[in-house]
Amino acid sequence: MPIAAALLSSDQLRDIIVADHPDTNGGRFSLLTEGWDSVAVDVDDRLIFKFPHEPRAEAALMMEARLLEVIRPAVDMPVPELTIHHTPLIYSRHAKLAGEHLLTEHYGQLGEAERERLADILGLFYAQLHAIDPARLRAAGAGPIEAIASADTIAAGAMPLLPDALRAVAERALTGWAALTPDPYGQTYGFFDGHGWNMAFDHASATLNGLYDFADSGFGPLHEEFIYSSFVSADLTERIVRRYEIETGKRLDRERIHLTTGAHRLWELAREADNPEMHAMMIEAVEAWATEV
Known about the structure:
alpha+beta; Phosphorylase Kinase, domain 1; Aminoglycoside 3'-phosphotransferase, Chain: A, domain 2; 2 domains; two-stranded antiparallel ribbon; 10 helices; 9 strands
């Protein structure tokens, strides 16, 4: 029976890494606990080893490595170079992208020129990513992303959890979501996870050093690509979209992006309906979306 990484202690994970990678012997090992699908180990702040929890996550990790082989030479943005190892269980190794998460409070401290530079880098990244031959990405294993649920499904899970002050705006959003027509640009291969928790941001220099965690990438509605940066700031999203339009010549619908963002935030709350410890965080995300201008 395969070993479950989630059941292994930090010492056991260290032993596996050192046995396969002697250059890590004597290094500083830190367990990273924020991943949903994998246990990650940081070695000396220079290497990341990811151990999937179960077979589905193993398959996703191997697909991510194949996708990044296609993506890396096609974009200016630094992305991880994963190598997959199989002894005694499946895991990946990659050089760590230097930097920390970019959160809302960090973005608020950036100056105008720094915000524009960040948006320019991200807008160009999305333009280059979306220009990759989709046949090559499908051959690497890319498939459709998980679709946001229907308005009725979202309402059933989310509405009972919302405070009264958010109910009206949520009802309007779900009415709009139910009536939304298919994306005018169809399905596009995208990152679909471009929030600040997947950014390697150097706060001292206000420089984005790379993006990571492409396991949830795939084919989805183009406008949905731009809903994740609003976890950092709606202002960042608008700046990214403006640069993307310059790079691609496409015109994006801001109202569609805003509506999709709201549906997504409510969907995330609905999916955590049976997980009370997550409710406050998810409701806060809905509130932040509802107050965007």
